[in-house]
Automatic annotation (TrEMBL), chain B:
This protein's name: Branched-chain amino acid ABC transporter permease
Topological type in the membrane: Multi-pass membrane protein
PANTHER family: ABC TRANSPORTER PERMEASE PROTEIN, HIGH-AFFINITY BRANCHED-CHAIN AMINO ACID TRANSPORT SYSTEM PERMEASE
Subcellular location: Cell membrane
UniProt KW keywords: Cell membrane, Membrane, Transmembrane, Transmembrane helix
Amino acid sequence: MTEPTKMLDVSNISLRFGGVKALTDISFHVNEGEIFSLIGPNGAGKTSMLNCISGRYKPQEGAILFDGKDLLARSINDRAKIGIGRTFQNLALFSHMSVIDNILVGRHHMMKNNFLTGMFYWVGGAQKEEAEARAEIEDIIDFLEIQHVRNEPAGSLSYGLRKRVELARAIAIKPKLILLDEPMAGMNLEEKEDMARYVIELNEQYGITVVMIEHDMGVVVDISHRVAVLDFGQKIAEGLPHDVVEDEQVKTAYLGVDDFSLDDEKEAM
Amino acid sequence: MSYVPNPRPAGDFRTSYTDDNRLFKTHFETRAALVLLALIIVAAPFIGNYWLSQLIMIGIYAIAAIGLNILVGTTGQISLGHAAFFGFGAFASAWLANSFGVPILLAMPAAALLTTAVGMIFGVPAARIKGLYLAIATLASQFILTDFFSRAEWFSGGVYGALAERPNLFGFAFNDDLRYFYLVLFWLVVTAVAVTNLLRSRDGRAFVAVRDHYLSAEVMGVNLTKYRILSFGISSFFAGLAGALFGHYLEYVSVEGFTILLSIQFLAMIIIGGLGSVYGAILGAAFILLLPQVMESVTTMAAYIFPAMESGKSYVKQMSIGAAIILFLIFEPEGLIHRWQQIRASWKLFPFSR
Ligand SMILES: Nc1ncnc2c1ncn2[C@@H]1O[C@H](COP(=O)(O)OP(=O)(O)OP(=O)(O)O)[C@@H](O)[C@H]1O
Ligand SMILES: [Mg+2]
C-alpha cells in the first residue's frame, strides 16, 4: 500500500472565547479518501474544531493546512472555492428557497453568470448556464432520494429531509473535503441507516474525504476509518475506531454521560 | 413565508430544465401578463389625463419600489434612505442634461448609474452592521443627501431646485402625458423583467441566501460583503432611474420632494405588495398612490352626512397609509401578491378548494 497523502493537517490549534478554552493544542491529520470521525462528550469542542476548519472561528494559535496550503489565511467564502463543504449541527438551510435553489447555491462559486448577465438572462449565457447547473444537481437529488420534494420550500420539510437537503447542498460545492456536524442527530434508526449509506457512498463513489462529528458510537465504529476523541477541548485519543473505544481515558470521558458499550449499540442497530 | 402549493394546473408539464425556470410560473400568467400589457398600451390614449398622470406616477414609484424590494425583500437589509437615492437620480439626470447637454433619454440611465455608485458608498456600512443599526445608518444617508441637495448649487440648484426638461428623441418630444406614459411603461417593463431574471439566476439566489442564513451562505462560497453592498447598488440604480423619470415628468426638481416620508412610503409599498415579489411591488405602488385618493372621495361623501369630516380630510388621507400598513402587517403580512397566489392555488383545486 502506498503512503496515504495528508489532505488536512491540523497542528497545535488553540481557541479561546474570553476565559473559556474551547480547544487546547489540538493536532491531527486527515488522509485523502478517509472517513475521519471526531467524537467526544457534549461541549468537548468538536463543533468549534469544524468551525476553525470552515473559517467561522479563528484560532488564536496553531495552523491548518489543506492540500499543503495554509487555510487560516483564507476567507470563509474562499474555502468553498478550494473544495471544503460542510453541514451544520443546527440546520442552516435557506428556508424560504426551494430545495433546488438551496442546492444551486452550492454551485455558486462555479457559476459565471452575474447580476448583469443574470438580468439579461437570454443573451449572455445565463439561461444556458442555469439549465446546465440544474441538470448537474439532478444527480445529487437522485443520489439523496429527495426528488419528491424538489420544488418545496426547504423550511416546510421534515427534519430528516432537511438534513438530507443540507448534505445535498454541501455536495453541490463539489468538495474534496466535507465536514459533517452530527448528520444523524435526532434521526430514527431507518433515517440513520440511510444517512450512513449516503456518507459511505459519497466517500467511495464521489471520492470525497469526510470529517464527521457523530455521537452514535455504532455508526462511528462501523463507517469511520479513523477516529479522534476530544474532551474539554483536549484531544485524548486518536486511532482506529475499535482501539479508540476500548481506550481507558475515552471510557472515563464518556462515563456518566452515556454509558455506552459497543455490543449494546450493535444489538440496537 | 407560508406554504403555497405548486400553482401549475394538470397538463402543464415541464419537459426541460429551462422550462422549469420560466419568467412566469404558469402559462396562464404569461398570457395574462401579455394581455394586460397590450390592454394598457391600447387603452392609454382613451383614459383621460387624470388617469394617465396616475398611471405615470404608479409606474415611476413601482420602478423605485422594485429596486427597494431587492434590498429589503430579497437581501433582507433595510433602507430608510430610498427617497434620497430617488432624489439623487432626479437631480443627477437634470444636472447631466442641463450642464453637459446629455440627451435626456441617455441622461436618465446615466443618472441611475451615478445613483448606483452613491448607493454603494452609502451601503458600505451594511457590510458590518445589520437590523436597527443599519436602519439608522441609512437614515443618515437620507439626511446627508438631502442636505447635499440644498447646498450643492452646482449640482441641484440648491434651494431653488433644478429645471428638468421633457426628453426628446430625434424631434419626437415626450411633451404630452401619453407619450411620457409609454416611456415610463417601457422602463417599468424593462425593470420588472430584468429583476425577475435576476431573481432566477446566480446572484439573485445569492441575495436570498444572504437573507435567509448569511452564515451558511458564506460557507457556500457567497461573499457577504460583496452581495450586501451590491444589493444597495442595484436597489439604488432603480431608485435613480425612477427619480430621473420623476424629475423630467414634473419638469422641475426640488429638494422638498424627497423627504423621509417618501422613504417610508416606498417601504410601505413593498410591505403591502409583498416583500420579495416584483409584481407585488407594482401592486403596492398602485395601492399607496390610490389609497389617499379613494379616502378623499370617501370622506367627501361622508362629509355630506357629517359636515365635520370636511376639515379632517387631509388627516384621513395621511392616516390611511399608516392604517393600511398596520392592517397589512397584522392580517396579510405577505402582501397583496400572496392573496393572488392563494387565489391561483384555489383555482387549480376547484371545486375542491375552500
Ligand atoms: N461562539 C462561542 N462563544 C463562546 N463560547 C463558545 C462559542 N462556541 C463554543 N463555545 C464554547 O466552547 C465549548 C465547546 O463547544 P462546542 O460547540 O465546540 O462543543 P461540541 O463538542 O460541538 O458539543 P456538542 O456535542 O454539544 O455539539 C463549549 O464550552 C462552548 O460553550
Ligand atoms: Mg457541536
